[in-house]
Amino acid sequence: MDRTIEARVTGPVSGGRGWAFGTPVADFAGHGYREDEFFFEGVAERYLSAPGTEFGFDGLWQAEPAGTARYKTRMVVLRPEDPDAFNGTVLLTWNNVTAGYDNFGGGDSPELLEGGYALVAVSAQRAGVHGVGDHPIGLTSWDPDRYGALSIPSDDYSYDVFTQAARAVGRGRSRHDVDPLGGLEVRRVIAQGASQSAARLSTYVNAIQPREHAIDGFSLTLYFGSGSPIEVGDAVVTLPPPGSEDSRPLPVGSHRLRTDLDVPVMVVNTECEASSHYEVRQPDTDRYRYWESAGTSHIYFQAMASVGPRYQRDFGFVPPTERGINEVPMAPVVDAALHHLQAWVEHGTPPPVQPRIEFEGDPPQISRDADGIARGGIRLPQVEVPIAHNSAIAGSPGVLSRLGGSCVPFPPEQGRDLYGTKEEYLRRFEEATRAAEKAGVILPRDVDGILAEAAEEVPID
User: Fold this and answer.
1) Are both 256 and 338 inside the same structural domain?
2) Most C-beta atoms within 10 A of its C-beta, which of 166, 250, 284, 445?
């Protein structure tokens, strides 16, 4: 394929229902940001394993082109209005399609809005555009007037669609027609993906980045430790929850991330992904960092509650959020990791190395204390100074609990036995918060909010 031919970008897009599907409900203008949606289209390649090679455990994969097809899809762009407020980094997000529709997060995070990043959310997969099943809620069904012309023939082309998106917003992009970044001087592109999208990026890291060199750094969060197939044909691929018998994702523990890249790769996991990822743990290096947070889970109560306004706008209802799933927010850790990754890509300063969750036994299981809280790993204050048992252990059957873990508050008498008084609890909680800040796993701007939330929830008289 002639790489001098770029994807054609059109927009900003308007019409249809009047707004872009899936965007965060936030006061972007109040932060000096603007939101736009663009379409981009072209001819994308699909790939196969190169003859005589295999996608082995070491991640040193070799892919080669195996055919092309036309596509048309979309990107949502959040960027600073003031060029002087832009930090030079585009966060290229691989939208998640596990739920059968296009989903991306982090567009309203403090690190993004206060740090001066631009975020470009890419609809790279067929499920996001066309949906799945008999009642699809892909883009073309949700708003046919706005999105009816979009088309991705197969997930086989998703990797090259993502590459073409990177080039359309990167430092070498064409600015002759439509510039999605509005003339901003881009200096680097960091690819990010969570859960199912982290699996896609895993395969991209191992098979595509060595060919294309379109990305300057990778952020994989909530990564179960296995990539996605590079060839699926007509199958619509999402990432089933742990325990599913669906065999389309690569088996857990089948490979590591390749170690010979010339760009940084950072993986940030909760306790929920730790067991699946255990078999493919690899050492931290000058190009790889792995963070693992104890007492946390894939989804958590605060995150579930925060999506209400977006669901109300896009679907007309707010999903119920019940107590019982994990209540230790991972957002501050994810923000801190991005802050460090940005410095790593820009200045060569690697993120601090963090302890990993402890395992024991045969087969290896997470080691837990008397309260059932995981040992080792990143120790957020809610875990280090607990007033509840928070873990990735499912509290009940079902997908939500398997991914949401559980939160069981300690009885008041247990809190009194542990801390004596409310004042002593808050003193120790602040000490643990400052320790997490010093370790670099939460940022200074998050400290006051974490302490304020703790002061409101102390079950000690």
Assistant:
1) no
2) 166
Q: How many CA atoms lie within 13 A of 184 on its CB side?
A: 30
Task: State whether 232 and 346 are in the same domain.
Answer: no
Q: Please state, in angstroms and rounded to a whole number, the distance separating the CA atoms of residues 132 and 126.
A: 9
Please check whether residues 70 and 193 belong to one and the same domain: yes
Same domain membership, residue 349 and residue 258: no
Q: Structurally, how many domains does the chain consist of?
A: 2
Going by C-alpha positions, the residue among 428, 289, 310, 292 that lies closest to residue 356 is 292
Say whether pLDDT at 392 is over 90: yes
Q: What is the DSSP string of 264-326?
A: -EEEEEEHHHHHHHGGG----BTTEEEEEETT--SS-HHHHHHTHHHHHHHHSS-----BTB-
Q: What per-residue confidence (pLDDT) applies to 400?
A: 73
> How many residues are there in the chain?
461
Q: Measured between alpha carbons, how far is 257 from 57 in angstroms, rounded to an integer?
A: 9
The larger pLDDT score, comparing residue 239 to residue 404, is at: 404
From the list 43, 41, 46, the residue with the least C-alpha distance to 72 is 41
What is the mean pLDDT of the segment spanning 145-172?
A: 97
Tell whether the model's pLDDT for residue 18 goes beyond 90.
yes
Q: Are 287 and 259 in contact (CB under 8 A)?
A: yes
Q: What domain range includes position 62?
A: 8-263
Q: What predicted TM-score, i.e. pTM, was given to this entire model?
A: 0.94
In this predicted model, what pLDDT tens digit does every residue of 352-365 receive, in sequence order? Answer: 999 999 999 999 99
Determine the Cα–Cα distance for residues 308 and 313; give it in Å rounded to an integer: 9
For residue 416, pLDDT over 50 is answered with yes
State the average pLDDT over residues 430-437. Answer: 98
* Opening angle at CA 350, ends 349 and 354, nearest 5: 145
Same domain, 243 and 96: yes
3-state secondary structure of 79: strand
